[in-house]
Amino acid sequence: MQLRYAFRLYPDAGQRTALARAFGCARVVFNDCVRAREDARKAGEAFPKAGELSKKLITQAKQTVERSWLGEVSSVVLQQSLRDAETAYKNFFASLKNTRKGPKRGPPRFKSRKDARQSIRFTANARWTITPGGRLNLPKIGPVKVKWSRTLPTAPTSVTVIKDAAGRYFASFVIDTDPAADATRMPDTDATIGIDLGLTHFAVLSDGTKIDSPRFLRRAEKKLKKAQKELSRKQKGSKNRQKARLKVARAHAKVADARREFHHQLSTKLISENQGIAVEDLAVNGLARTRLAKSVHDAGWAQFISMLTYKAQRYGRTLVKIGRFEPTSQTCSACGAVDGPKPLNIREWTCGSCGTLHDRDHNAAINIKTAAGLAAAACGAPVVGVVRKVVLDHFQCHSHGGSPQPRS
Fold it and tell me: ∠342-259-281 over CA atoms, to 5°?
């Protein structure tokens, strides 16, 4: 499988200027491509092919006075920008035909130099290299200082240079991982765990472990409020407003980085200690429209489950997602009796059938683990077994077959 390894870049003043020039040229080519296709659509003509656009918007444009400065950056950057526009159109048309999974995609829009995120991509044919001194040597930009936090496991196939809203630069390398090498990195285990995600505690495990919610956004609200207030008082278009905007962006970036690091550490720990992991398929988009929206976004459940998913694929663990409508908080984990829905303020309850006193979240985690095990067994796919490169999603079984099928 392919993964991304991101590292912080520290370009000098001249390299920042060269990167800004490359960001601008890539943006212009992207916008020219969108404009050419929109003009063709309005005229009722067929969309120009990628090869025609490459010749017209890059090769011929460099020979004109208006676009001669396109020759100051690597041609690979411009070609990749065209490919990005092509991909955006493919995703848009696939959404129209309902052949693409996920949320609907709109048509590509023009990029602005004021966009919070700027990026350019270099493929292998761009002849970028990593110098013996550990710098990233980019064509027409030069050797850029890199803060290496870890070694690259294999030779990368491409690198994307990103400037985020906080003004930081990153190099994102695409790596093809070795399944055999990844499998040896994780210890053999036959343990399984169920995870109930929440707000009071970020996660409660079926073994009784409770992991507190760090509430990174809530803890930083006072600082963010002050920075946002300072930004609102600055005159629009002034340099002081730009400085204040960067201050707000850096404060938000600090919160996002801390949350991401917490998710990485917890997901890696769970993957390394368990062969089978069961979680609930939460309706995050729906919960984010309630009065709990800020707390839901602060928890970052979707990002955490995404990390569990790709790490389970990478290291041969089994991840089972049970349906969001499974009554895990209503069912007694001791006798299986369904006791009915309960408001969120009820954290403990006693089963009316067997009299067992339950902690709401711990009971739900046990039921999640049990439901996932029963679903896997019913489909003939054991939750625990030999190390496999598979992720079991929310599924139902055919009446005459044993293979898991996605629920529509």
Answer: 40
d(CA 91, CA 108): 9
CA distance 278 to 116: 37
The residue annotated as part of the active site, out of 280, 281, 348, 393, is 280
Whether 312 and 306 have beta carbons less than 8 Å apart is answered as: no
196 is catalytic: yes
Known catalytic membership, residue 221: no
Helices (H), 159-238: 179-185, 216-232
Annotated catalytic residue, options 32, 182, 196, 298: 196
Residue with the two structure tokens 């409020």: 225
Which structure tokens are listed for 90? 């493919």
Q: How far apart are CA 311 and CA 189, in angstroms?
A: 16
Q: How do the pLDDT tens digits run along the chain, 408 residues long?
A: 889 999 999 999 999 999 999 999 999 999 999 999 999 999 999 989 989 999 999 999 999 999 999 999 999 999 999 999 999 999 999 999 999 888 889 999 999 998 989 999 999 999 999 999 999 999 999 999 999 999 998 899 999 999 999 999 999 999 998 877 887 888 888 899 999 999 989 999 999 999 999 999 999 999 999 999 999 999 998 999 999 999 999 999 999 999 999 999 999 999 999 999 999 988 888 888 889 899 999 999 999 999 999 999 999 899 999 888 888 888 888 888 888 888 888 888 888 888 888 888 999 999 999 887 744 544 444 443 333 333 333 333 333 333 333 332
